[in-house]
Amino acid sequence: MNRKKKMGGTEVAFRPQTIIEARYDLDRRQNDILDILLGIVGEGDDTEENTRYEINIGDVKHLYNLQDESNAYAYLQKAVKKFEGLGFRLKEDEGTDIYYPWFSKIKYQKKRGDEGRSKIVLDLHPEVKEMIMSAKQGAYYRIEYPLNLTKKYSKRLYYLLKDKENFNGGVFVVSFNELRKMMKIPDSYANGNVKREILDKPYEEINGNTDIAFEYDLIYEKLPSGQRSIGAVRFKVKKLKRRHTVVEYETIEQNGTSVVATEEEQEVIDVFDCSLKEAKDILRTAKANERTHEQLFEILTYTLRKQVDNKVGYVLTILKNGYNEPTRLSGRRTGSAWNNKELDTAYSQMNFADLEQQILSN
User: Fold this and answer.
1) pLDDT tens-digit profile of 162-197?
2) Residue at a domain's end among 260, 293, 320
3) For site-directed labelling of 202, which of 11, 164, 305, 324 has its Cα 20 to 30 A away?
4) Where are the strands (E) in the chain, listed by range?
5) SS3 label, residue 289
6) DSSP 29-96
7) pLDDT surpasses 70 at 70
8) How do the residues of the chain divide into helix, strand and coil, expressed in percent and rounded to 5?
9) What are the DSSP calls for 268-287, one per residue?
10) Is residue 12 located within the same domain as residue 140?
């Protein structure tokens, strides 16, 4: 093994420069699987000869900010299945390309009734394993950062920036055509659209949400036609202090599909500690009954202080029917204009589960 020993355990990955610069088109979830795998390769008692790795659901589901972890296996399985029949291409020299399958074998093992013990077993091609273990250049990174980047080009650019952050003060130049090839952008796509997807959007997402920030300048070249075109990009990468950040909040449905919360839904989730579906129900009922933002969050805070079995049903009831307790808004106590009943007395005998269904069906 030529590269230095990876520090930080399985939550730190090493991605070789050859793979960073290879030509392939993976979506964000497929890159997640690679990040998790690259955190395991070379860790602990792993040997150079070993090519088989297990992704245990119980060990990795904490890496995602999931409200509902019960469908984590289906979520990861769906991402891994997309690797079937896929590979990446390396340019060895001017006349030679090499194609490698990402995995030579994939085995899915679901433990019914005990999902935490479910796992996915991945076999690497021996030359791919050797490539990872013997690489002298590449990127070390905490996988929490790319895992929570929502755009696939943000992830690809993040790996490239991490690879270069320690060389030449973080300043490097790469041809625009090479960036396009690396990220498998079709030749028919206009440079302006490509710039927006592989530079502008990643700039907005990577900066402030990871352990690095970057700036870039476009270097133009003159075409034979006399027009100017983007010839290269000069990057400047800056290290930031380690932070814990989650860009998205998502829940996993039974088929493994992820649903990402809006900023408004996230605010309800953070305050009320509820699921994404419950946040959507609460906001939909608040809007239907013309409740203001202040009224909604007053109700959420009030309910958190109460001892109720169904706090979501309790909130939905107040949102629809009101209550007559005084409110405190902007630091002063006033009578609420939308109250109409004494909640604790009027609803003490109600079945909130049934009432919740009734409200949501309206």
Assistant:
1) 999 988 999 999 999 999 998 888 888 888 888 998
2) 260
3) 11
4) 12-16, 52-56, 87-93, 96-101, 105-109, 119-123, 138-142, 171-175, 212-222, 228-239, 250-252, 258-260, 327-329, 332-334
5) coil
6) HHHHHHHHHHHHTT-TT--SS--EEEEEHHHHGGGS-BS--TTHHHHHHHHHHTTTT-EEEEEEETTE
7) no
8) 40, 20, 35
9) HHHHH---HHHHHHHHHHHH
10) yes
Structural domain span for residue 25: 1-144+248-260
- Residue 45: count other Cβ atoms within 10 Å of its Cβ: 5
121 and 253, same structural domain?
Answer: yes
Q: What is the pLDDT of residues 246-264, one digit of tens each?
A: 445 455 555 556 666 777 8
Q: What's the sign of the alpha-carbon dihedral 338, 340, 345, 348?
A: negative
Give the SS3 label for residue 189: coil
d(CA 203, CA 215): 8
Among 232, 260, 288, residue at a domain's last position: 260
Alpha-carbon gap, residue 128 to 119, rounded angstroms: 22
Are residues 317 and 278 both part of a single domain?
Answer: yes
Based on the structure, what is the number of domains in the chain? 3
- For residues 254 and 116, state if they share a domain: yes
Of how many residues is the chain composed?
362
Alpha carbon of residue 19 to chain centroid: 21
- At 174, which CATH number? 1.10.10.10
From residue 178, how far is each of 28, 66, 293, 320 by CA, in Å? 21, 36, 48, 58
Sequence-separated (6 or more) residues with CB below 8 Å from residue 259: 250, 251, 252, 253, 276
Residues 3 and 139 in one domain: yes
Tokens 């075409």 belong to 223
HSE, side-chain direction, 13 A CA sphere, residue 349: 2
Q: Within this chain, do residues 122 and 254 fall inside the same structural domain, yes or no?
A: yes
My answer on whether 240 and 308 are in the same domain is no
